[in-house]
Fold these 2 entries.
Entry 1:
Amino acid sequence: MLFFELALVFICSYFLAILASFFNVVIFRTAREESFVGGRSKCEHCGKQISWRDNLPIYSFIMLAGRCRSCHSQISRRHFISELLAFVSGWFFYFGLLHAQALQGLPIGQLIVYFLCFFVLAFIVWADLQYFLVPDFLVILLTIFTVILLFLTESAWQTALLAVIFSCAVFAMIYLVARKFLAKEALGLGDLKLMVPLSLLLSWPLILVNIFLAFILGGIFAMIALVTGRKKFGQALPFAPFLVLAALISLFYGKFLIDWYLGFLL
Ligand SMILES: [Zn+2]
């Protein structure tokens, strides 16, 4: 039985690597404004189409020793590493389920959807760090997962909807004010769209903690980047990583932070 269980975990983890490979294509082609549906992958150097057996996640990279079959130039390692991390994350999830006491009380269906949400969030951060963009495709996928979670956890959809309206209103206001007075975009529209699934994930009032923390974290980082000379004033910073980091903190410690803050006031 254990053999079959491990084989199943292996297959699911490899499926995550395939998903990672697909997400990389989505991110790369969104950045170049190409369609990611259809069209075979090509070598970045010689332009030769890559056959399916040279395009298997993780396996092909190792078999080809990281080089293109026809022109022998190096294949970007980033994709290989993200596929490998995706594969490893599947195993972490499995061993986490076996050993982490905190996880054992929760229904497996919820845990899997939460895991998929974190998985997509990781690639949203990855896309913003690489290309300063948040692909619509990933935001839509994440929204679908968060809606499924709403049903699975039987959360009140009204409060979740309130959180969506509130956060989108705040971000739309910042976006419009910055465009009018600074004549540039302080936030991307991608960040605004990302607030939809994040609001569904956190609901009200945790979304407040998310927005508040994201601006604090982003502000601190921007200041460090300015002082150390890594960024000039007015230069763009990717904001999605701060939104996602703040969302994770809010998800796990949001209630604690709200209590702490209210205790501080009263
Ligand atoms: Zn090549």
Note: The CA atoms of residues 53 and 60 lie 7 Å apart.
Entry 2:
Amino acid sequence: MEPTVAILGSGAMGTILAGGLLRAGWQPDDIVMAARRAEQAEHAERLTGIRTILDPAAAASGRDVVVIAVKPKDVPALLDQVADVITPEQVVVSLAAGVPLAVFEAAMPQVPVIRAMPNTPSAVDEGMTAYCSGAHATDEAREKAAAVLGAVGRTIGLSEDLLDAVTAVSGTGPAYVFLLAEAMTEAAIREGLPHHAAEMLVHQTLRGAGRLLSESGKSAFRLRGEVTSPGGTTAAAMHVLEEGGFRALMEDAIRAAAARSRELGAIARGEETSR
Ligand SMILES: NC(=O)c1ccc[n+]([C@@H]2O[C@H](COP(=O)([O-])OP(=O)(O)OC[C@H]3O[C@@H](n4cnc5c(N)ncnc54)[C@H](OP(=O)(O)O)[C@@H]3O)[C@@H](O)[C@H]2O)c1
């Protein structure tokens, strides 16, 4: 039987997860969401068909899995509201970027806590979620959390010190691909293609290349080699990208995102930072 779920916070991520759970076979009665404004509750309920209430403690009470889907800055106030009703038989799954396991464990001693970093392709059930487990998370707790998170894509368990790197790679990653899509579309239009054709060529190429990469069992290096013949068109393009520092730029971008994630984590822990 699917674990019952409370989703505290019914914004972008909360409603994406709720939709994914329904598509994965959860019944609407097995899920409840919480909002802090009546207008937001009505909107979320209309969008998902899932009961959305204004009392997060009532929503969390007795549910197998309690998902924290509010902005990191709203976590302390939410914990004040719900910590007393959450028991060690439940599992807390936090999606709040940068908020350490320790924050939840301090508020709810003995409660199993899972900290997760999902990404937006979860909206089409193609998400990538990495998670780490707190000190009281048993295998059973991890399984329940992974079942919920796995409703919207793939999951992987990692140690907490790797979550900043995860944020920079898969959390932020969709934006790298969207920027690539924008740049390719603009260049295609400059080469004379009509706007709608340029978009279709780029979108389907990214989709097809992504599926090939994940389903062929071949490495990115090998797949790239297969479309690159000596002296050909791909070789000409690859030469420009390599000469222009594409790899180094990507490395710098990921390093900057990871560094920013560490800074935001320090702010969430209430530590001093230079910014
Ligand atoms: N979006 C992403 O790509 C992404 C990716 C990975 C992780 N995350 C994480 O997911 C979490 C949610 O992000 P989001 O983009 O979904 O934010 P969001 O759209 O702002 O949704 C958060 C919702 O929580 C509500 N809320 C705040 N405090 C509450 C409380 N005490 N009780 C009930 N509801 C409360 C907010 O109410 P109001 O409407 O009144 O503000 C808002 O509707 C964040 O911690 C973020 O770090 C997001």
Note: The beta strands are 5-8, 31-34, 52-53, 65-68, 91-94, 113-117, 127-133, 153-157.
